[in-house]
Amino acid sequence: MKHGSFKIICLVLWAFVLVISSYxxxxxxxxxxxxxxxxxxxxxxxxxxxASKFATKTDDVEYPLxxxxxxxxxxxxxxxxxGSENLKxxxxxxxxxxxxxxxxxxxxxxxxxxxxNPAEIRIPGRVRSLDLWVWGSNLKFYIEVFLRDYQGxxxxxxxxxxxxxxxxxxxxxxxxxxxxxxxxxxAYAGLTFVKFRIWTQPVERVNxxxxxxxxxRVLTDTFExxxxxxxxxxxxxxxKLWADAQ
Length: 246
Fold this sequence. Notes:
- This protein is of the alpha+beta class.
- It contains 3 helices and 12 strands, in the order αβββαβββββββββα.
- It has helices spanning 2-27, 74-77, 235-245, and strands at 31-37, 45-51, 65-69, 89-94, 103-110, 121-122, 126-137, 142-148, 154-161, 165-173, 192-199, 209-221.
- A hairpin with a 5-residue loop joins β8 (142-148) and β9 (154-161).
- Residues 16-26 have low confidence and may be disordered.
């Protein structure tokens, strides 16, 4: 009886060790901060805007306007008094004919795309949070971030209100309810950045305002489990192997 009990205890302990080891592999993490866009005007993307129907249009100008402006948050980048760095920010100038829930979309386009089709920026790893430096002028506006998952579903996250003065770093956590992996191989299924949306509110004026963006970053987990044959779960490797086999 005692010998049988000892064997059972050993089996239980061994199973416990296996479970802990397996669990440890699943939850291993390697957090890194990645810059998706500096807004210096020298990346693979340019940035365009679109707006809801009451955006002001005149014979001379059509709002919103977008441009790279030599300005930045000194708290993050210093004064750069000698001009040694090519520091700029993305400036958005908006105006609407009436107050209300108006919106401005700010989205990337590949720099070499003459047709200016909206592009999406691939986010490396499994993203945990996203942050952006935003200059505000105390207007009661807020900003949303649009992310697309591997199934094509677009998720909207509220980055934050911009009812403050000057530069501030806005951050939003990406909820675990947004899928970033699959049960079957390849398990990795990252997100893509689609666009920002700036919302005005009925209580606030909308005649000629300015907003500035600087350095879009993500905190992301780049850890991937390695296993015997993991290269056969890499779509690029698989495509190459099968192309060479023809």
